[in-house]
Structures are given as structure tokens and as C-alpha cells.
Amino acid sequence: MLDNKATQLTSITSNHKGLLEYWANFYFQIHVLGSPTATIEAKKRDLNLFINFFQASLNSEIIDLWTPSITKAFQGYLLYEAKNSLNKPYKATSVSRIMATLKHFARWVHKEKPFVTGYPFQGVRIIEIEEPRWNGLSD
């Protein structure tokens, strides 16, 4: 899990390079820190949510076990089972944002160290949010 101190990594050494948490911390340091506070907090929540799901689902932290089926299962979990901090189901817009964070993270990891099983978003359809219809004043 990402450390509560947004500016520090949890204790990691080179022998942890095969672990999801190592890569999440590395990504966080490179791509998230320096962003506005709200962005940092949102991305930290998003990544921790996935790390917890991954560890609970696979009973493992080995990043190369991340496959498209895990990504799809996580999206389903967000849509139908998970609850937010207010103990309410996530809205589609929140699920879309969480999945966008995760997709950017996965793309970056895959570029740095290709996944043994392939890109974990391969063939995964992210839910699409419909643009609201204009209900303004008519002419």
C-alpha cells in the first residue's frame, strides 16, 4: 500500500521489483508527486484500492500475475461490490476515473518492464460515460 506520507516511498529494495506495490510507489514518485493535493489524494486512493483488490484476489503481490481478467474483475468489483468512503456504491464517473488512473499506471509499467502475460488492459472495455444532454434555454 502507498505510504500515508505522500512524499515518501515505503521501504523498498531491489529485490521487490517484481511486486505490484514497488511499481505503484515508483509510479507515484515519478508521475503523481508535484500534482495538486486533490490529485495526489485521488490517485493514492485509486492505486491503493487496486493493490488491495489484487492482493485479496490473488493472495499475491507479484505484478506479472496482473492479466486482463484481473483488470475486468476489478472494474466489476468497483461497479457492483465496492463502497466508497461514505459506504455508498461508486458512481460510474468515479469508476471511470479510477480505471483511467489504473490504465495510465499499467501503460507506464508495461513500457518500463513489459508484463510477462502481456498488457493487462488488452481487450478491456472501460465504461463510457455519456455526455449529459443540454437542457438549457431554447431559442
Any chance you could write out the topology, listing elements then pairs?
Blueprint: H1 20-32, H2 37-58, H3 68-80, H4 92-112
What keyword list fits this structure?
139 residues, mainly alpha, 50% helix, globular, CB, DNA integration, Integrase_recombinase_N
Low-pLDDT parts are 7-14
SS class: mainly alpha
**Gross morphology:** globular
Rounded to the nearest angstrom, the radius of gyration is 16 Å
Q: What is the beta-strand fraction?
A: under 5%
Number of strands: 0
* Amino-to-carboxy terminus distance: 54 Å
- Provide the residue-averaged pLDDT: 87
Identify the quaternary structure here.
single chain
Order of helices and strands: HHHH
**Helix coverage percent:** 40-55%
Question: How does this model look, in words?
Answer:
There is one protein chain. The chain is mainly alpha-helical. The chain has a domain at 36-128. It is 50% helix and 0% strand. It is built from four helices and no strands. It starts with 19 loop residues before the first helix and ends in a 27-residue tail after the last helix.
